[in-house]
């Protein structure tokens, strides 16, 4: 179960990659815009502001997220749906998926399908976290591998569920697109309170720890997060009252039916 309030603890930091992604989409007056994995909807609402004449739709598999999104009152059609089941209807000129596809095993095949089903000249833009080798996720896998949690938690975690930018670019180029791919490492400055959870633990509770919490009872979850918190404190020390949290992101913006010219 997704918790919109927990997810939005670091809303500004989570929003920045979205805005950086959308800034690279040069569409002028798209007929329809779709946000696949729209979450609580605040970022999707900015798509309606950028393209006010377009029909904007936001889809997410979490009813709680869609309830929060609908309550915004934005000119967006929000609906509960699994992005794996989504197919273009013919007028989607912009498709965005921000920090969602890392949850979908085999999402590369979805990208191939969308690239071929979208109309020619449509824009397909995605961003996924690329920090699965970071100290935060190494600590998560270490704790999940301890005897107390190995059987239940370890199978829920994947070492690296996303590709590098060059791999996504090659995939979409092979599907007939012109692709622009890059990566950025943001250094988030997370305030640390004298008392309370380590800020990286609080960050992870909104995303990476969601399946762990769902799999454990209250006592197991409390013990797990305490053990993880110790390791995160060592990996990300507090300096000047804050934690410096590097976070790598992978971006791709592709245009369908418009393969880049290659030298012979």
- Derived from helix and strand composition plus strand pairing, the structural class reads alpha/beta
Terminal residue distance: 51 Å
User: What is the CATH C level class, in words?
Assistant: Alpha Beta
Number of domains: 1
Radius of gyration: 19 Å
Can you name the CATH architecture?
3-Layer(aba) Sandwich
Instruction: Indicate the percent of residues in helices.
Output: 25-40%
CATH superfamily heading: Vaccinia Virus protein VP39
* Number of separate strands: 7
CATH-derived topology: Rossmann fold
Please provide a written account of the structure.
Strands 3-2-1-4-5-7-6 form a seven-stranded mixed sheet. The protein has helices spanning 4-7, 11-22, 42-50, 63-70, 107-117, 135-144, 165-174, 199-205, 210-215, 218-235, and strands spanning 32-36, 55-60, 77-80, 92-98, 123-129, 178-191, 242-255. The chain has one domain: Vaccinia Virus protein VP39 (Rossmann fold, 3-Layer(aba) Sandwich). The chain is of the alpha/beta class and 264 residues long. β4 (92-98), α5 (107-117) and β5 (123-129) form a beta-alpha-beta unit. It is globular and about 50 Å long.
